[in-house]
């Protein structure tokens, strides 16, 4: 299995390295190795809370407004502490376990870091 990246133009898996460039033999696209390295650094997930603080896995946050829970008659109250969060990709970018509710996904715009 090759560790070389796929071609960004045609998504071909047959790319090869030539000096400081990657080359695709199918569409003749050439791109710099430095661009691929920079894109790999940019792919790191950055999630910010409602105040703009950067969140990390394992942080403790507080819910800043009452949130309705889909499929439940009760709601999460403002001020509820959520410990040991996990950041994920997607619209609801925080996975956590809340006492009394269980596993849940939250949006980072409704929490603040403690």
UniProtKB/TrEMBL annotation:
Domain Protein YjdM C-terminal: residue ranges: 47-113
Protein name in the entry:
Zinc ribbon domain-containing protein YjdM
Origin superkingdom: Bacteria
Q: Which InterPro entries match?
A: YjdM (IPR004624), YjdM_C (IPR013988), YjdM_N (IPR013987)
Domain (Protein YjdM N-terminal) spans: 3-32
**UniProt xrefs under Pfam families:** YjdM, Zn_Ribbon_YjdM
The source organism is Fusibacter bizertensis
Protein family (similarity comment): Belongs to the YjdM family.
Q: Which SUPFAM superfamilies match?
A: Prokaryotic SH3-related domain, Zinc beta-ribbon
């Amino acid at each position: 299995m090759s560790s070389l990246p796929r071609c960004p133009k045609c998504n071909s898996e047959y790319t090869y390295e030539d000096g400081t460039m990657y080359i695709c033999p199918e569409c003749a696209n050439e791109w710099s190795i430095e661009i691929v390295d920079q894109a790999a650094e940019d792919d790191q997930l950055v999630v910010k809370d409602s105040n703009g603080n950067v969140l990390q896995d394992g942080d403790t946050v507080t819910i800043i407004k009452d949130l309705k829970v889909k499929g439940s008659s009760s709601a999460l109250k403002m001020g509820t502490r959520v410990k040991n969060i996990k950041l994920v990709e997607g619209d609801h970018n925080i996975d956590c376990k809340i006492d009394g509710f269980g596993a849940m996904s939250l949006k980072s715009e409704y929490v603040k870091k403690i």
